[in-house]
Design goal:
Blueprint lengths: L1 E2 L6 E2 L23 E6 L4 E6 L12 E5 L1 E3 L3 E5 L5 E9 L5 E9 L2 E4 L8 E3 L5 E7 L11 E7 L9 H7 L24 E4 L11 H9 L3 E7 L15 E5 L1 H12 L4 E4 L1 H9 L10 E5 L14 E5 L7 H9 L1 H13 L10 E5 L1
Parallel strand pairs: 3-20, 5-15, 5-17, 6-14, 17-19
Antiparallel strand pairs: 1-2, 3-4, 7-8, 8-9, 9-10, 9-13, 11-12, 12-13, 15-16, 16-18, 19-20
Helix pairs in contact: 5-6
């Protein structure tokens, strides 16, 4: 694997056959039967396992921090004035009643970003709703996005105040070209999701089952929640991660701080958890409860202050998430793990296999 010049990220070729094209249930597996590569930073030790064996690698007093955000059916049919059909992906509900959205062009059974949109355009949606594209989305210090737009929706009654029932009636989960067919929304939910709000599934926790969580708790592993609503993942090259809403409860902050004070391990379930925890951590690594919008981008230069390990999926070449993983594991260890995953044919994407990085 060759380290590229693009920061962050490792450069490697992902063979199409290593893309998970369907949920594990469609492959005859239970949720927790996906494969798990456990990589120990100390000694660069790698262990191949199944996810349901997770408890063998955790110990009493470990803290697992989970993201309880639920997945929205965030893909809607959208029509221009000339009747042409597109897919509108809702990304993030922003303050002031506006959204960031992405318009995508239909191409066979998949979609691709569509850039030929103009400010002020109004698109028709199912059920007599419309969306008004106001301006390109822009993060402070960066040029306007070519892909994301700030938009305002007009929903008919009774959906004006709460669009979730509208999305449940007319929307579908966001699906990219590597997933060959549509799957119901429940296939895109973790078993512990409590509040819908993510455009795409926080997928690191998908393999958990109620039975596995019960066994971990009985083993003495502490499981504590936070919330971070994820936006769409189809970033353009060099596009920075955008702002996302988070909430870290006081109880979670207390448990994490006590574990750190006692030398116990804090393990994030997903990159979303790392982003939320690191957002509310001070320079000494003490976590404070809070909520708001985070723009934090975690790089090896910035480092991490709270987490000791992470459970995560396998990320594509040059993905910004790889910078976060490098901050946790180090470049050399990450390269070893990804080489092993490619050699042993682990599966990528939201329905794929998982990677547990431990100290």
């Amino acid at each position: 694997m060759r380290v590229g010049s693009l920061e962050p990220g490792l450069e490697f070729s992902l063979p199409p056959e290593l893309e998970a094209h369907a949920p594990p249930e469609a492959r005859g597996l239970a949720r927790d039967e996906v494969r798990l590569l456990v990589s120990h930073k100390q000694g660069d030790r790698l262990v191949h396992a199944r996810f349901r064996e997770l408890g063998e690698f955790l110990r009493e007093g470990d803290v697992l921090v989970i993201n309880t955000s639920g997945t929205l059916p965030a893909a809607l049919p959208a029509f221009r004035d000339d009747g042409s059909e597109f897919r509108l992906h809702l990304s993030t509900r922003l303050p002031g009643g506006v959204w960031s959205v992405e318009l995508r062009q239909l191409e066979g059974g998949a979609t691709k970003p569509f850039f030929e949109v103009r400010a002020g355009e109004v698109l028709a949606l199912p059920g007599s709703a419309t969306v008004h594209l106001l301006a390109p989305y822009r993060m402070e210090g960066h040029p306007p996005s070519r892909r994301l737009w700030i938009a305002v929706f007009s929903f008919p009654q009774p959906y004006t105040l709460n669009p979730l029932p509208y999305l449940l009636e007319h929307g579908k989960p966001i699906r990219y070209g590597y997933v060959a067919e549509e799957w119901p929304l429940e296939f895109y939910q973790s078993v512990y999701a409590t509040l819908p709000g993510s455009a795409e599934m926080p997928s690191a926790g998908r393999a958990f089952t109620p039975e596995l969580i019960t066994r971990l708790v009985a083993q003495g592993v502490l499981v504590v929640p936070l919330l971070l609503h994820t936006g769409v993942a189809s970033l353009e090259s060099h596009e920075p991660p955008y702002e996302e809403f988070y909430r870290v409860p006081p109880g979670t902050a207390q448990v994490v701080n006590q574990a750190r004070a006692e030398g116990r391990r804090v393990i994030a379930v997903g990159t979303t958890v790392v982003r939320a925890l690191e957002t509310v951590a001070d320079a000494l690594g003490r976590v404070h409860p809070g909520e708001g919008w985070t723009r934090l981008v975690i790089t090896p230069q910035r480092g991490v202050r709270v987490v000791d390990g992470i459970l995560t999926g396998w990320h594509e070449p040059k993905a910004t998430h790889l910078a976060m993983l490098e901050a946790i594991a180090g470049r050399r260890h990450l390269e070893l793990a990804y080489c092993a995953a490619l050699e042993h044919r682990y599966l990528w994407h939201e329905f794929g296999d998982l990677h547990l990085i431990l100290p």
